[in-house]
Amino acid sequence: MTTTLPNRASDVSTQNPFRVMVVDDSAIIRGFLSRYLSEDPEVDVVTTANNGEIAIRQLGVHKIEVVVLDIEMPVMDGMTALPKMLEKQPGLQVVMASTLTLKNAEISLRALQMGAVDYVPKPETARSVNANIDFRRELVEKVKAWARRSRDKRGEEMPVVIDPSKKSHGVSFIKPAAERSSGRPAASGFVTAARPSRPAATVVGRAGGNDRTATGVQESGATAISLRKGSLKTPKILAVGSSTGGPQALMKFFGQFQKPPKVPVVITQHMPANFTAILANHLGQATGWPSKEAVHGEEVQAGHIYVAPGGKHLILKKEDNKILTILTDDAPENFCKPAVDPLFRSLSDIYGDAALAVVLTGMGHDGLKGARDLTQKGGTVYAQDEASSVVWGMPGAVATAGLCTQVLPLDQLGAKTFNRLQGGA
């Protein structure tokens, strides 16, 4: 079954909207997902399908940029359809939508290895799908983030929303959620005109000192970034924070390490329960290092990866000359649990100028306050650059605040971090 949706009935019109297909075997869920996406004026749900076979045929009928793809469907399931879709339309952005089971968490992360770009944890019932505001917001923002990144690569114009009720000839120019400084991505609303294609960050000036402590100014698009001096001490801990686009970024980041680091590695990736355990397993398989979802009260060891579990904050605490993983049930920070800020804050008190934190792609500004605390104690912060980020929210927040010693493309960031952990510049 396929449905082609009518244009949004409103005085508001959109030039170059993001073109989306929703694939789910439940007519009710398809309807909810399509409605949530269509309520955002930058998104046009051009068609839907109730199984993978029909969805593949629809790729030949409609010009589609992003597919929201269910996993379990009759005739052809999502995992069977995924490689066929990518073969038929290279560059297609596929976001997997699955319920929060351990099985589906494993399948969703396996789908990322097969070419899907992201996942959205879907509530288990139609009623909860309809009632869950966080799910609605995450769905819309992830679809838009990946569509925006796809257009960046192709050099295609971004959506422009025209609302006759607004000034400036009905065109309202507001930065997209990826660029806003607020911690919480905005819910869908009448906002417009995403930025044009962004250039890669370039270093336009540095002031003396060796590379390890160099300062200067770096430009990312139209944003000038002031780099700060890093600590001369060889780091004793590596902490990484990430969100949207994070699972793939983590794989690429650690793939640049030549061997296990001589320090413990702690990671906060914005993910729900079940997904974080699977992520830890995948990181262990990819790196060959011991990797696990963190448990309460365990002493951290060099060369081991500890991933914050979904629904808990991970911090480190020093007791009797041991550094322990502590899980807390404190309130969400920056609307996230786990959050990056608590982890970074805990490092500043224990490690001081021997702490190294890295902020990868992600929405919002989680990690900013923690990075500020860390640098005030002498610690060092690196960030992924704008051009290589899916969403330059979290890394952009720490970079534009002047907290970073390095702001680098993802394909250089891991190697630079590894070298620094080895005592290099």
UniProtKB/TrEMBL annotation:
Its EC number is 3.1.1.61, 3.5.1.44. GO terms for molecular function: phosphorelay response regulator activity; protein-glutamate methylesterase activity; protein-glutamine glutaminase activity. SUPFAM superfamilies: CheY-like (SSF52172), Methylesterase CheB, C-terminal domain (SSF52738). The modification 4-aspartylphosphate is found at D70. Phosphorylated by CheA. Phosphorylation of the N-terminal regulatory domain activates the methylesterase activity. The keyword tRNA processing does not apply. Gene3D superfamilies: 3.40.50.2300, Methylesterase CheB, C-terminal domain (3.40.50.180). Keywords: Chemotaxis, Cytoplasm, Hydrolase, Phosphoprotein. It catalyses: L-glutaminyl-[protein] + H2O = L-glutamyl-[protein] + NH4(+); [protein]-L-glutamate 5-O-methyl ester + H2O = L-glutamyl-[protein] + methanol + H(+). One of its GO terms (cellular component) is cytoplasm. Residues 231-424 form the CheB-type methylesterase domain. InterPro entries: CheB-like, CheB_C, CheY-like_superfamily, Sig_transdc_resp-reg_Me-estase, Sig_transdc_resp-reg_receiver. It is found in: Cytoplasm. One of its GO terms (biological process) is chemotaxis. It comes from the Bacteria. Residues 19-137 form the Response regulatory domain. Contains a C-terminal catalytic domain, and an N-terminal region which modulates catalytic activity. Involved in chemotaxis. Part of a chemotaxis signal transduction system that modulates chemotaxis in response to various stimuli. Catalyzes the demethylation of specific methylglutamate residues introduced into the chemoreceptors (methyl-accepting chemotaxis proteins or MCP) by CheR. Also mediates the irreversible deamidation of specific glutamine residues to glutamic acid. Belongs to the CheB family. This is Protein-glutamate methylesterase/protein-glutamine glutaminase. The gene is cheB2.
